[in-house]
């Protein structure tokens, strides 16, 4: 079955459309009820995860006290910012590209993702400039001083990603773990929000495409096309949005044992235009393949499903500060990849605004922090493996909230769903 997007948009304008989150559709399926092609017009899906393929383009003036020909090197809060392409000769204006995975020279575990959140929060950031003449200048700016600040995705929103296990006999430093990866397949990490992931709900990209309006870190933006390393088996997308309209709680930096990474959030409305979309939205976690990768060799060694990661687990970490024993070294605080755990006097505090619900704290101190993260169950070299998940690099809790907000915004008319300009070949 097929239908054009135009009539769906007209139904939305008349407030007659059925708009559901992808989670709501899957809940109906799990309850044993049927969902027909005509029962839903639009599905809202979302993901919040580490997305390395991220960069920002910033343009703003700097106060130097004297004219300089052009900048040759710039850092913002110690993070390298690539100058160009416009030289802005003798104008005192910087055009910069900042990578989300860039690492600060001055602050440990601070990188581009942290910087982007600081900018969106309106925090002042320190800009250091080296000119072609070799002179050095410093200034402090905020987003109010930046006429142009846009975030770009080069490889985001994979249909689904992977789980990782270290099968080697030695620890491994990797971007896929908040600490060094323990050896001998004793722990697992994972990425991907499973059944609520946007491209999972439209894997052939029949409902969304070039020009489709989305929410990127809470700001209205647009899909530009397919991303780098995109393939029919694992499609992903590129997009852009204005940082001035973004919400800081949807973004940030995440410390890994290989350095800081960048967190980005997507919320996408998928019109149910044909059977490919209809079949995809009805697919629940237990039907979605989850590849298990060896973190050391970076090869696929097994396959399970996203039910191992997201079915009957805790998507939010429970916090019981009264059970804190006041250890000399607080391992959760020391190793939290978001620096969301700290002490106010002798009282432990969890900052829910920055918490990613990765769950690492619950594996380090199960008295104060509690979360069932699930485990990966698969066969490997003739053995039945059951490897506990210790870190999640996707935040399904916040993704569900974003999908619900997008659903409500479509219904009340504050988010205007549009048709694509051009199809994308996955």
Automatic annotation (TrEMBL):
Q: Which residues form the 4Fe-4S ferredoxin-type domain?
A: 315-346
**InterPro entries the UniProt entry points to:** 4Fe4S_Fe-S-bd, HcyBio, Methan_mark_16
Q: Could you tell me the superkingdom of the organism this chain comes from? A: Archaea
Ranked from the top, the taxonomy reads: Archaea, Methanobacteriati, Methanobacteriota, Stenosarchaea group, Methanomicrobia
Q: What is this protein called?
A: Putative methanogenesis marker 16 metalloprotein
Q: Which PROSITE patterns match?
A: 4FE4S_FER_2
Q: Which organism is it from?
A: Methanohalophilus euhalobius
Gene3D superfamilies per the UniProt record, alphabetical: 3.30.70.20
> What SUPFAM superfamilies does this protein's entry cite?
4Fe-4S ferredoxins (SSF54862)
One Pfam annotation reads HcyBio
């Amino acid at each position: 079955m097929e239908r054009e997007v135009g009539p769906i948009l007209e139904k939305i304008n008349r407030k007659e459309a059925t708009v559901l989150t992808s989670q709501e559709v899957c809940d109906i399926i799990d309850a044993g009820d049927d969902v027909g092609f005509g029962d839903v017009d639009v599905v809202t899906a979302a993901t919040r995860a580490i997305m390395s393929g991220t960069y920002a383009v910033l343009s703003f003036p700097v106060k130097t006290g004297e004219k300089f020909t052009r900048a040759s090197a710039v850092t913002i809060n110690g993070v390298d910012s690539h100058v160009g392409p416009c030289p802005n000769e003798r104008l005192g204006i910087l055009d910069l590209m900042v990578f989300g995975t860039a690492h600060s020279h001055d602050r440990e575990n601070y990188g581009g993702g942290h910087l982007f959140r600081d900018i969106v929060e309106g925090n002042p950031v320190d800009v250091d400039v080296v000119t072609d003449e070799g002179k050095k200048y410093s200034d402090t700016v905020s987003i109010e001083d930046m006429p142009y600040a846009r975030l770009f995705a080069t490889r985001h929103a994979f249909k689904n990603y992977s789980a990782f296990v270290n099968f080697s006999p030695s620890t491994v430093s990797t971007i896929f773990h908040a600490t060094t990866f323990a050896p001998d397949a004793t722990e697992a990490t994972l990425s991907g929000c499973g059944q609520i992931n946007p491209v999972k709900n439209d894997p052939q990209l029949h409902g969304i495409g070039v020009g489709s309006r989305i929410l990127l870190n809470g700001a209205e933006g647009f899909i530009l096309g397919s991303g780098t390393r995109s393939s029919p088996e694992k499609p992903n997308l590129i997009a852009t949005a204005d940082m001035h309209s973004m919400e800081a709680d949807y973004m940030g930096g995440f410390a890994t044992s290989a350095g800081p990474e960048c967190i980005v959030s997507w919320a996408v409305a998928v019109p149910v235009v044909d059977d490919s979309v209809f079949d995809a939205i009805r697919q629940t976690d237990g039907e979605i393949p989850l590849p298990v990768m060896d973190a050391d060799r970076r090869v696929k060694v097994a396959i399970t499903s996203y039910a191992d990661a997201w079915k009957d687990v805790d998507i939010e970490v429970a916090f019981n500060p009264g059970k804190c024993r006041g250890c000399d070294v607080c391992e959760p605080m020391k190793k939290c990849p978001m620096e969301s755990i700290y002490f106010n006097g002798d009282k432990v505090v969890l900052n829910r605004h920055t918490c990613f619900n990765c769950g690492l704290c619950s594996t380090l101190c199960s008295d104060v922090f509690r979360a069932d993260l699930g485990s990966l169950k698969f066969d490997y070299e003739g053995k039945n493996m059951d490897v506990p998940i210790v870190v999640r690099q996707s935040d399904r809790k916040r993704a569900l909230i974003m999908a619900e907000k997008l659903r409500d915004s479509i219904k009340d008319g504050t988010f205007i769903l549009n048709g694509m300009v051009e199809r994308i070949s996955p």
